[in-house]
Amino acid sequence: MKKQYAASLILLLALVGFAGPDSGVHKVRRYRQTHELTLLTEYMQFLAIPNVAADSANLRQTASFILGMMQKRGIKGQLLPAKTPGVPPAVYGEVRTPGAKRTIVFYAHYDGQPVNAAQWASGLSPFKPQLTSAALTHGGQFIPMMQAGETSGPDWRLYARSSSDDKAGVMAILAGYEALVQSKQRPGVNIKFFFEGEEEKGSPHLSEIVEGNRALLASDLWIICDGPVHQSGQKQVVFGARGDVNVGLTVYGPKRPLHSGHYGNWAPNPALALAQLLASMKDSTGRVTIEGFYDDVIPLTAKEQQALSRVPNLDAAIQKELSFARADGGGQNLSELINQPSLNINGMRSANVGAQAANVIPTTAEATLDLRLVLGNDWERQVAKVVSHIRRQGFFVTTQEPTDAERARYPRIVRLTPHTGYNAERTSMDLPLAQEVVVAVQRTSTQPVVQVPTSGGSLPLHVFKKINATTLTVPVANYDNNQHAENENIRLGNLWDGMETMAAIMQLK
Amino acid sequence: MKKQYAASLILLLALVGFAGPDSGVHKVRRYRQTHELTLLTEYMQFLAIPNVAADSANLRQTASFILGMMQKRGIKGQLLPAKTPGVPPAVYGEVRTPGAKRTIVFYAHYDGQPVNAAQWASGLSPFKPQLTSAALTHGGQFIPMMQAGETSGPDWRLYARSSSDDKAGVMAILAGYEALVQSKQRPGVNIKFFFEGEEEKGSPHLSEIVEGNRALLASDLWIICDGPVHQSGQKQVVFGARGDVNVGLTVYGPKRPLHSGHYGNWAPNPALALAQLLASMKDSTGRVTIEGFYDDVIPLTAKEQQALSRVPNLDAAIQKELSFARADGGGQNLSELINQPSLNINGMRSANVGAQAANVIPTTAEATLDLRLVLGNDWERQVAKVVSHIRRQGFFVTTQEPTDAERARYPRIVRLTPHTGYNAERTSMDLPLAQEVVVAVQRTSTQPVVQVPTSGGSLPLHVFKKINATTLTVPVANYDNNQHAENENIRLGNLWDGMETMAAIMQLK
User: Which value does ipTM take for this structure?
Assistant: First the structure.
C-alpha cells in the first residue's frame, strides 16, 4: 500500500467512524456533557493534593486518592510498591473484557514538577486549583466553580501544578473509561491501569516496580498518556521520546561572601566563572560546541522522515506568540531540532538579584543543565562529554564539596551533582497495532491525527522495554500549558477530548 | 621633615600617649569594662530593629531609637528630614565644648543591606542578635547573654544585620562619648553627630539633607565611622573611598516558560544569553575587557603611593583563609587593585536551581553588577561604557519592559535597571588636621595605624564636598564581618576598641 494512500485511508475510516450522532464517540461526549460538574469537582480535589517529589506523605495521599477514583468506577485497584522503602508506589488497576484478545496498559504519572509558589501569578497557587474563562495570558478572568446544569466552555482553563502534567492523564483515562461504561458501551480489550509516582524525578524506581510485576503487567501495548497535543490543537500519536539527564553544577569562589568594594578586582567571582563556563558550551545559534555532542545519533528511517515532513509547521505562529525574534537552530524547524540531542540551562543562581542584591562577591554559583537525548545517545556517555568539556575549560571536577586542599590547589572548581538519566526509545511506525491506535484516535477528531516519530519531551520508555513492552504516547494536554513551570494549566476542552481519545483506544478489538 | 621620620614620630607620640595607666584611653577602657552588660544590652536592642531600605516604618523606629540613645547620654538630638517625603531622616546631635576652636562631625549610617534570611546559618536570624564565643567559621559556639559582673572576651562575636555595617559606627561613637564624659574627661572639640538612613541605597537624598542644613553642619572635619579596620587587625585612617554604581540587567527569552524537551534546541535560552554577555565582560585574569574601562583614572600622588607601599600585605594569609587558589588581577596585590575601577557580579538568577530546578527554558535571566570607581571616573560615563559594550555584543538595550514589537524585532534584549551612583573622593594626606587624627588614633593602639589613600568600599563623600567639608574615614569593624551578606557579625573587641578610637578623636584640641 502506498504511504499517502494509507494516510488517506486512515482519515477516511476515521471520518466514517466519527460521522453518526450515535457513534461511540458521541455517546462518551454526551455522558461527559451531563456530568461535567461531578468530574470537575473530583478533578479539583485531585489537583489540591500536593504532589512534589520532596513531599512523600502527600504523594502517598495522592496514590490513595487515585485508588478511590478507581473504586468509584468499579475498578479493583492496588498499590504496587517498589522494593526500595519510601518510594511512592505505582497505582494499578485491571478490567478484564470477556472475549478480548489483546491487553492494553494505560499509563500516566501522578507526581509533579517542583514548585516555587512565589513565581505563580497573583491569585494562583500551585495546589489551589483555579478556573479561568480563558488562558490568563489571553485575557482570561478568574471564574467561580460551575453550577449544576451549567456546561463549561472548551477554552476555560484550570490552573494548578500537574493540571496538565500529568494528573490530566490519570483523569482522562479513568473518566474516559467511566464514560464508556456508563454510556452503555464496552471495552474491546483487556484494560490495565498503571499510574506512576516518580516520573518527574526521572523514574528511578520504575524498573523495580515493572520488573517485579512482569506477569501482572503482561500486555500487547502501553498507551502513555502524557505531554501535549500538537501546537495546532491536532491530536497526536507519538512513537518515541527523547531520553533525559540533568546535570547540576556548582562553581566555587571565596569561602565566605566578601564586600565587593574591599575585595573586588582581587577575589575571584564564581558567578563570572560559571558564566564563562556556560557561555563556552553553545555558540550564538544555540548549537552545542561540546566535542562529540552530536555523535552517536541513529538517523530516522525513511518512514519516520516522511512522517516528520507531514507534521504541521507552526513555528512562525508559536514564535510570534512566545515573542522572540530569532529561534536557535540555524534555520532548522522545531520538529527537526527535536530529533537532535539538546543542552538547556534550566536555571542559574548566584547570591541575589534585584531588590535583594547586595554588593558582594558570592561564594558559589550554581546552574542546572538538562540534556535531552535521541536514539543512539547514551546518557552516561553524553554526561561524560560535558564533563570532558568542563575539564578542557580548566576546571577541576568533583562530585563532593571541595576540600580546603582542593580549593588551595585548583583555581577553578566545579562540583557536579550526579543525576540518573535514561536513553531515548522509538517504536516502529510499521507496527500494525500502532496503526490501529492511530485509526481509533482519528475517529474522535475531524482534524488529521499528527504522527510524530519522537517527542521532544522524555518518558522512561526504556523501562518498559525491559519487559518487552511496546509503547505509544497519546497525549491530551494543550501545548501552552506551562508544564514544568509556574502557572501550569489545562484547557478544559483538551481534558474532555482526552476522555474521548482514551475511550476510543479502549474500544480497539 | 622626611617621610619615614614623620611616621616614626607619630608612632613615638602615640606610644607616649598610650603608656600610662591613667591615660585617657585607659579611663575610657575601664569605664567600658565595668559597663559592658549595659552597653551590650542596648546594642542588641538596637540591632533587633530591622533596618533594610524597603522597610520605612522600621527605619523610622531605628532613628527614634538613636534619639533615645542620645538622650540617655545627655545629647540633645533631632531628626533632619529630607525635602522628599518618605525618606528616612538623618539623626543629628550636638555637644558644644567651651573654648573649643574646632568642630568635628561624627558620621555613621543606621540602615543596612538587604537580607535573605534563608541564607543565614542555622540558629541565626538577621534581626535576632546572637552572641558566640568566636567566629562561627572558626569553631565559635552560641553563648547566652553575659551576666552582671562578667566581662566579655575580645573574640566574642555578635551576629546580626548591621552589627558591623554600620550600627557599630553609631554605637562606637555614642558609647565612646559616654565613656569619655563618664570617666571624668572632656572633649577638646565641638562635637556633632550625624547618622544617615540611606547609605546602603547609595545615599540618594543625603545631598538634600546636608545642603539643607549647611549652617548646622559647619565643621572642620567629618569622621566617617564605617567599614572594617585592616585585615591585620591594625587600626586604619582612610583618606578616600571608591565611588559606586549598580547596574541591573535582565535578558529576555520566550514570553512564557517552556518545557525544555518540547522546545529545547529551538526557543532561545535567556540564561545562556546572559552568561555569554557576562563572560564577554572580563578575561580569565579578571581584567575588565570593556573598551575604555580603565581610562579616566587620576594616578596616586607620590605620598599616596608611598602610604600604599606601607600598607601591610596580608594577601597570602587572607587568600588562604578564603580558600581560593588564584587571585584575580594578574599578580597585583589587593591594595593596588583597590585603586582601580572594578566590575563585580553581585548576583545572577534565572528560574531555579538544585531541588527547585525544573526542566524549563526560562523567560528571563537577571544579574546585578556593581561598578566601583576611583578618582577621575565618572559614574555615568562608567555605566555608559558598559552599555556600549552590551550593544556591541548585539543586544538591544532598553530601560523598560520590552514591548511585543521590540521582542519581535531584536533577537537579544537587555533591560537595564537604572541606579544612581556617585564618584570617588580623596582627602589630601598633607592636611595637618588629618595627621592630628592619625596621631590621636595611634594613641589608642600599640600597633602602627595604617594610612590608606582609598578604601575599597564606597562612601558618599561627594555629598560632603558640596558643603566644602573635609572627610576622613576611621573604621572600627573586624575585616571578616560578612558585611553585605548573610551571617554579618562584629567582633566585640573591635566594638570596644572603636569606642576608644572615637573618644580619642573627640579629645583633639
Answer: 0.85
